[in-house]
Design goal:
Blueprint (H helix, E strand, L loop, with lengths): L1 E6 L4 H16 L2 E8 L9 H19 L2 E7 L6 H15 L3 E5 L6 H14 L5 E4 L11 E4 L4 H9 L7 H17 L6 E5 L28
Parallel strand pairs: 1-2, 1-4, 2-3, 4-5
Antiparallel strand pairs: 5-7, 6-7
Helix pairs in contact: 1-5, 2-5, 3-4, 5-6
Length: 223
């Protein structure tokens, strides 16, 4: 099984899907992370120097999760949907993923929204597409919960590879969200979520996903 994770910036995949990536790799699935922009506007200073630094950080993070990395190098903050879709389509045809993950169409960041639209256009009906949960989960209604408890430490290490981005804040935020999502399942651990809207011919993607959190019934206190 092959999974493609298409994100806008060099640290997005680790923040929004690091636990899932590690879970897929533990299953033996191949994971390719496609990063649309060079990340050159993600901080102060010379954008070219920052883009080079972020490329090195992305490589370290991908290695930490044992994922393949493809840096597409489009300009940060100036993504054009048509150009990205054309570039991405050829790369996805070569990768032949069974499932594609990308940002939600109603994400908070303009680059994320553009990446989402370009990915949907590039994939066409070659594979199912599922949306990643945005930061803090505001307005996001998941359809699938994935147990990432065993992989949270690996996710944290991957996020921390992005030293130029003050990554400790993303570790804190992503851990809080993952704990909340696990708690929704009655699980004392961590979980990441995605949203998949059934589209012909991909009505059901459960066979492509790592395991959900374990089901623990609530104790009946009326007895």
């Amino acid at each position: 099984m092959q999974i493609a994770v298409v994100t806008a910036h060099p640290d997005d995949a680790e923040i929004f899907a690091g636990g899932m990536i590690a879970a897929w790799r533990a299953m033996g699935a191949g994971v390719t992370v496609f990063v649309a922009t060079d990340g050159g506007r993600g901080g102060a200073g010379d954008p070219r120097a920052l883009a080079e630094r972020r490329a090195r950080e992305a490589a370290q993070a991908a290695a930490a999760l044992d994922a393949r990395l493809v840096l597409m190098g489009h300009p940060d903050g100036r993504l054009e949907v048509a150009a990205l879709a054309s570039d991405l389509a050829q790369r996805l045809i070569a990768a032949a993923p069974d499932l594609v993950l990308t940002h939600a169409p109603d994400d908070y960041h303009a680059d994320h929204i553009a990446t989402s639209a370009a990915t949907r256009r590039a994939v066409s009906f070659r594979a199912p597409v599922a949306w990643l949960e945005p930061m803090a989960g505001l307005g996001f209604q998941p359809t699938h919960w994935i147990d990432t408890t065993a992989h949270q430490d690996a996710k944290d290490r991957a996020i921390l590879c992005h030293a130029s981005q003050d990554p400790e804040r993303f570790v804190r935020q992503s851990r809080a969200l993952a704990q909340m999502r696990a708690a929704q399942c009655g699980h004392d651990g961590f979980a990441e979520t995605i949203r998949h809207g059934p589209v012909y011919p991909f009505a059901d993607i459960r066979a492509l996903l790592p395991a959900p959190p374990p089901v623990r019934p609530v104790r009946d206190r009326s007895r």
